[in-house]
Amino acid sequence: MENNGYVNLEITNNVGIITFFHPKSNSLPGEILSQLAETIKQADSNDGIRVIVLKSDGEKAFCAGASFDELISINDFETGKNFFIGFANVINAIRKSDKFVIARVQGRAVGGGVGLAAAADYTLAYKDALAKLSEFALGIGPFVVGPAVERKIGKAAFTQMSIDTEWYNSTWAVNNGLYANVYYTIDDLNMAVTELSSRLAELSPDATKELKRVFWEGTENWDELLESRAEISGRLVLSDFTKNYISQFKSK
Fold it and tell me: What global pTM score does this model have?
């Protein structure tokens, strides 16, 4: 299974640690997206878990976003739509959870990886955790992750990231609210994640639930919104522009 990636859930002192991995820079094929959404739901329904930590294995990339291998194999609208709904399902699982989700971003985040970092309720990152929304460059656009990113960093910063599809450093990410804090060693990052999750796990689950509802107020239509966004991406991924871009990228 490791060759195709995995999603694991470990419970320690009322903290549910969800770890995902894929050998290609923690990219997200449909199967990993499905497992990730289901594992978040599983953690949410477990009374032995009071806070969720979302992290990836490896040192270099937090998440490279959509799997290019899977994107280039999409040949019809329904398949494309269903692939992008995979990202919608993960975002909605985080949104609907009664528990706070803390993201640990130890490396670069691209596209859907930025969406994960933005959807989390509180995101802590390593200093080298650059971020970029690359979707527009390949002929699609950050349609599905867009609402989560815009909610976290605001319309102006989201517009900037969407149009200028280059890397943004961790200082920019902190200043614009994508990351809550940045750490200069991995040990410090790990310690901060452990301390925060342990502290949150001791607080009232009822208060957490109500506070989370307040934080996500105004997103009640996201089941429909993100599905409609997945339809846009599902159509655009079939374009010659996107197929050619991915082919050229993979041949480098």
Answer: 0.96
